[in-house]
Amino acid sequence: MSHYRYLLRKIGWSAFTIVFVILLNFFLFRILPGDPARSLTKDPRMKQDAVEALRVRFGLDKPIINCFDSFTPVRIGSCSVNPLETQFFIYVKNLFQGEFGISYKTNRPVSDILVERLWNTILLIGAGQILSIIIGVVFGVFAAWKARTSIDYGALLTGLMAWSLPTFWLGIILLFWGSNNGLPIGGKSTPGASTYPLLFQIGDIAEHMLLPTLTYTIVFMGEYMLVMRSSLMDVLSEDYILTAKAKGLSTFQILKDHALKNAMLPIVTIIAINLGFTVAGAIQIESVFSWPGLGGAIFEAVESRDYPLLQGTFLLIAISVVLANLIADLTYSYLDPRVQSE
Amino acid sequence: MAVQELELKPSVPSSPLVGFWKVFSRNRMAVVGLVMLVALVIVAGFADAIAPYDPKSYAGIQSSDIYNRPSAAHWFGTDDAGKDVFSSFMFGARNSLIVGFFAAFISIFIGGTIGVVAGYFGGRIENFLMRFTDMMLVIPDLPLIVVFVSLTKPSLWNIILVIGLLGWTTTARIVRSQTLAVKSRKFVLRARAIGAGNRHIIINHILPLVMPILVVNAILVISLAILSESTLAFLGLSDPLAISWGQMLNFAFGRGAMSVGAWWALVVPGFGIVWVVLGLTLLGNGLEQVLNPRLESHHLMPGKTTLRKEAGFHQLRKPLRDSPVVLDVQNLSINYVSDDKPPARAVENVSFRLHEGELMGLVGESGCGKTTLMMSLTRLLGSSGQIVNGGVIFNNMDLATVTEEELASIRWNGISIVFQGAMNALNPVRTVGDQIGEAIKKHLPIETEKLVEERVVELLELVGIAAHNKDRYPHQYSGGMRQRAMIAMALACAPQVVIADEPTTALDVMIQAQILELLNELRKKLGLAIIFVTHDLGVVAEMCDSVLVMYGGVTAEYADVDTIYNSPRHPYTQELLKAFPDLSNPEKRLTSIPGYPPKLDALPPGCRFAPRCPLAFERCSEETPDLHELGNGHVASCHLVEGS
User: Interface pTM (ipTM) of the complex?
Assistant: First the structure.
């Protein structure tokens, strides 16, 4: 009973956050100085009717929201705008139909570009996260178990160092090293590889993924390690660990059956909280390695001032992170029986 | 009252700053971090004077100067525009630091205000502010910053503003929880009771205690701001007029440093970022350790090996009972050792013998070494406790020296423990039945799950818990039920000895009586030997067969229960008895013993009880009394009983 209420509350808040993100996304791009239409129509060589045509094409000729002028959030004296004809309504309607507008630069629907790239990002983030969590957790467990030995100090220092590395710089350095050692310098696959047999293609993609994934793993491993260490240290000084020891369980049994599940709980939260950083990491890594994912899309959109693409990418990333957070919350409530009865 | 006053004062020596510096300078991490930062601040501050070239001027640069290797003229080589990398590095340091500090200042200000207001005022304000914070926490930072900056002009101050405005969420959460903790402290409640205004309380009472945490958090926020700025600059969103490390990397990466092999243009600016972020991280971590020292130890750290002195064992000549001995503790001494302090003599030369079916009471004030003694029996002392003399004889084995493997088979199977405060002694994420079953599976040759389950149900019913509760979690049990479950668990492997370490503290009187009744019954039914650790002399008189009175880590008196109650010889036992109500003599005046037990790291010379003893004379503060035999196994350590 109370568990359902907990679930409903979490889902409700995520929905609310998503609405907030959609509003933020819509208004940011229209209210901040340097709005999309102006940058689009700034080119002096463009003829007036061409500009108008573009504005119509991108829906920028319509009022932003009922009773507001297109570009200034000022109420017009007498207003007779059909609410169904406003940019906001059309924007929301399109979102529900999975349309994110049309890229200025490539003239393709943003949704097509995003779908293509989403999978690449998931592939990269998935591989990087899994590796960094496994390595981070294993080393964190060792550091906590062997607390105050040289293993522990070494792990601590490595963790702090890894945490301090700027992701993009580590990527650059690895890329520099890799390109001198015959590794591919970027992208997801060798041009023309799609004509080769499947096994070769997979190997090709793996080769391209090697350095980005390595960068990812190093950067995130440090934090997971530090969190796991301190979390396990806390758990291992709990009374119930002493009980387990008094029961005659071996160190391994205590770690496995009494400490790890409890100590992993903060890791679940950290994974959720870190998703924002994860995405930030993806943007940097994809930019460095020209990986055709969402982060790369942000980089390209910024470079070419392609606002619909930027807007769409931001929206997709933000909503994914909100949903992933929700999943982490629900996982947590499943893992920790105490949460449900709160 | 006076004691509480003392407790409220923060534990900082006379001059807080001097004291802080003393602790700080001992923390190697913090000092290294601080030195790294100071060095960088000097380089950034004096860049105009130190830098060999002006990075803004193109005077005298030729096309042959592009991407030159490091040389005497250019220590770190030249970049894509032929400019000196080292000079740009210094000026870049300045902008990175400016962005970091100012953006962090904005974030800390917003987050601090939101956190204090939410924590202090509570109610709807808190609810609204924290919901908003949670929402902002979920929305990914960097993409939002990128969107903001790319929609506005990427000037230095715009970047500072955007990073600052979006980076406050963690600060708000941390400050809120600290404010909540501080708010309910006594001096704040008192200030409010005497009518101090909110403003006054926040500024004078809350802020000073929130500040340390805020400072540590600020250091983290600065490093995040610097990382954000460099990432933005690397993505091409930087002030074209302000050189920064990220911008240098953006130019080098985008303009062919990679293909011409100009590693210096890529390595040097990144090294700057790593340097400052690592410096801040070390400083922040170190500061946190200084301000909030945590005991870096846990139950799985290897214990200290037992030392054994040559001195002969002090044997108790006459046993208190006739039945066979199950546990023979001989001259056990335990020290707590640490690197920078002399060892604390927690337990010294304690001996007792536990017979089959015997219930022994172990009494004494808090801090008398009772728990230490009990934990040492199966070597559960942790990493700092060390057995330095004596032995624990159980089944013809000395538990003080057997191997860990041998010990593991005796723990619970031979000697089990009912811990005090069973809430924390049970694992919160596993069901009670599961935890009881675990002990059975570990020690008993029961193979099928079904049989284990049957045994668990049997045990729970033995202590009066209905079978259906076995699949519930500890937090779903009441306090009394948890303690019963703990007892059921202690009995799981039918041990010979059960140590009940204050099993009824924190329970209400009715439940206490039930638990005690249960223990006593089980002892008779199962023939257990029980060591019952308690403060409650009334219970001891009613149930126990023998009593060991400890004071300051030593045996004060040890005898059968009638002797202890009717003819106590040690002044401490006598005083303890005066402090407890006697049902047969309700008119009796109760008296308490003035003073406190000695601190184990500052033991008085001579008898440990001398400073509080009403009968103390000169010899007591000079010479430690021996344990004197008084016949029938009765012993007491007091000069007054000598020769009697």
Answer: 0.85
